[in-house]
Prior knowledge:
- The protein is 56% helix and 5% strand.
- The mean pLDDT is 87.
- A hairpin with a 2-residue loop joins strand 1 and strand 2.
- It has a two-stranded antiparallel ribbon with strand order 1-2.
- The protein has a single domain, classed as Alpha/alpha barrel (Glycosyltransferase), CATH 1.50.10.20.
- The protein is mainly α.
Amino acid sequence: HSVVRNALFCLETAAGEKENHVYTKALMAYAFALAGKEDKRKALLDSLEKEAVKKDGTVHWQRPGKEPEVDLPYYRYRAPSAEVEMTAYVLLAYLTTQPAPSQEELSFASLIAKWISGQQNPNGGFSSTQ
Length: 130
């Protein structure tokens, strides 16, 4: 369809921008994964990996300029919903590939899933419906 082709062209143009927000990169990586554009997906995931927060055997992404987490006794920090959402989009981009994710991608994806599962509230949900 011409609408999908034009939308992909728009995304490819935007992906070439020097200053893309991490949230935008996460969404584009997933969109390119769904479209089967492996080269674009891989390039965005490589860029995102450089911006990842790797801590305590987990991987996630946060907004630039965000205040660092406060380590308090008996308090478990939960990330804002936008950060859970963009990290989930990166996870989807890692897992949505043809023919199948490599062992390296699956290993990295498991670190992302570990962080996301740690953001669940006591009822099994998250901080918002995002």
